[in-house]
Task: inverse folding
């Protein structure tokens, strides 16, 4: 249970100062009554005679009346004061609870929550900074500090609900304290990690695909695609610059790096924000690293990059052709079956996936490096076209591509991997790509990926068609957890 | 036949009782009136004191001054 620290805001009168005022008023009023009665008693004085007796009777009577009836009125007024305070407290409690529940329901329906692009933590709302003094308000919601507005200790009125444009305030992640854009909370978002072992070509694939999505595929869909923030812009611009300059994009070194965010605008309005995660391949070798990849909590879809040279049969076959060329391809060091098993174990142990249940988010499996040797002819478009020609008319090219690549993986001996995919993933599509379009060289000519946009477009479409991103797993009966 | 030596008689007794009752009633009324005036007075003083205490102690919390 977390301890709530006081907010840098002024608490609602009926939840804080009202009770201090009540106690002070009761004490003060009682003392005033005693003083008033005392004044009458003291006014009696000394003397003799009928007038003095009359005076004495009057003042003593006044003193007694003040003490007795004044105290009675004091008791009644105090009780009324307490009842009034409690009534307002109850009324405000009911009002802010109703508004809070309405807001939570609305945010839940819209799938608005904070997905920190830096530490990947998930929070229902971020912390907000006062636009007057910068004080951090960690619970800027309808509560005892105010129903619609909180008054910061500096005097600034801050909107306490989504409905009053709370998002205009600067937000920050409660976990890592990184400042986050409004779109990281209040926008339609898709969360896509790229999965694969070291040297499988994840980074090259991702940035080659993003390059084409920003320049071609996004605009073709009517979007203006741009990096959401400065950090994403730096990463994307750098990768595109490397590809255009004939350089291979840098390998990811950080275990769980910051998300790369793209904003998709149409007709000047933000339609959605894309989150891409490119963890180092070594991440998939260790459960604790995978657990740290917090985006597992809100996956929309996944891209799994399979280096064919990480499959022993493929490695052995082509090493027989040219050991040197195979070495130049930096074959992946981890069996793809191990990677997928690690991922499933972590989803089961830490992210609520029922044991043996089906992962419901769409998974695009991308066989990479098809520019090497004759792989293009085995799993690339030539292979798909050949299969289509050999089949009956009217066959769906995507279905045929799926069938050809899946069968080739089986032929290469990746049977366990294919069976795991078949049994544990509900929506799968196989693709083949060359992230750079050719074997890496030193010519300086731009690298143009081949078959990189199709898996990206498919996983985005399939993710969007699926339900809310947080409902990413299902039990054995296909019901979401 | 007249009976002149019967004492004050019924009328006299009734008159004494009436006077006594009037005196008691007057005393009770005085006491009641005194109590009533005392109650009004004491309650008024108590109410004024409570209102004064309210004005002296109730206020909204002020933002901090920088």
Result:
């Amino acid at each position: 249970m977390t301890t709530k620290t006081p907010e840098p805001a002024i608490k609602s009168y009926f939840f804080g100062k009202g009770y201090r005022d009540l106690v002070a008023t009761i004490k003060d009023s009682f003392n005033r009554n005693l003083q008033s009665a005392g004044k009458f008693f003291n006014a009696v004085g000394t003397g003799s005679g009928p007038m003095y007796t009359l005076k004495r009777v009057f003042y003593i009577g006044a003193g007694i009346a003040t003490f007795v009836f004044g105290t009675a009125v004091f008791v009644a007024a105090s009780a009324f004061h307490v009842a009034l305070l409690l009534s307002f407290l109850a009324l405000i409690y009911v009002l802010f609870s109703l508004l809070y529940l309405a807001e939570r329901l609305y945010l839940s329906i819209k799938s608005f929550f904070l997905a920190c692009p830096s530490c990947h933590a998930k929070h229902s709302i971020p912390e907000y900074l006062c636009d007057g003094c910068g004080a951090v308000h960690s619970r800027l919601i309808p509560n005892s500090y105010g129903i619609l507005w909180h008054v910061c200790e500096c005097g600034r009125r801050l909107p306490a609900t989504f409905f009053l444009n709370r998002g205009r305030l600067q937000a920050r992640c409660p976990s890592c304290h990184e400042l986050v854009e409004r779109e990281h909370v209040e926008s339609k978002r898709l969360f896509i990690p790229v999965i694969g072992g070291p040297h499988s070509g994840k980074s090259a694939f991702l940035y080659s695909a993003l390059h084409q999505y920003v320049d071609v595929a996004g605009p073709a869909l009517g979007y203006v695609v741009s990096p959401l923030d400065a950090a994403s812009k730096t990463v994307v611009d750098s990768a595109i610059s490397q590809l255009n300059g004939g350089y291979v994009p840098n390998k990811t070194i950080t275990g769980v790096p910051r998300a790369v965010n793209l904003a998709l605008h149409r007709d000047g309005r933000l339609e959605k924000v894309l989150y891409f995660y490119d963890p180092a391949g070594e991440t998939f070798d260790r459960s604790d690293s995978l657990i740290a990849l917090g985006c597992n909590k809100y996956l929309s879809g996944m891209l799994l990059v399979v280096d064919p040279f990480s499959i022993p049969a493929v490695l052995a076959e082509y090493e027989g052709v040219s050991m040197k060329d195979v070495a130049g391809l930096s074959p992946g060091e981890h069996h793809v079956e191990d990677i997928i098993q690690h991922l499933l174990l972590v989803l089961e142990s830490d992210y609520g996936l029922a044991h043996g249940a089906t992962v419901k988010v769409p998974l695009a499996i991308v066989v990479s490096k098809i520019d090497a040797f004759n792989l293009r002819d085995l799993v690339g478009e030539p292979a798909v076209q050949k299969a289509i020609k050999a089949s009956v008319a009217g066959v769906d090219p995507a279905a045929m591509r799926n069938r050809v690549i899946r069968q080739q993986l089986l032929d290469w001996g990746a049977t366990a991997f294919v069976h795991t995919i078949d049994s544990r993933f509900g929506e799968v599509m196989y693709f083949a790509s060359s992230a750079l379009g050719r074997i890496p060289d030193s010519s300086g000519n731009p690298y143009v990926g081949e078959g990189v946009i199709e898996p990206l477009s498919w996983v985005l479409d399939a993710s969007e068609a699926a339900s809310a991103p947080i409902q990413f797993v299902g039990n054995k009966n296909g019901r979401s957890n | 036949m007249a009976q002149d030596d019967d004492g004050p008689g019924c009328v006299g007794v009734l008159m004494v009782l009436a006077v006594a009752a009037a005196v008691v009633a007057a005393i009770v009324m005085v006491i009641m009136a005194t109590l009533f005036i005392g109650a009004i007075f004491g309650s008024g003083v108590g109410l004024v004191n409570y209102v004064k205490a309210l004005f002296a102690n109730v206020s909204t919390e002020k933002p901090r001054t920088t």
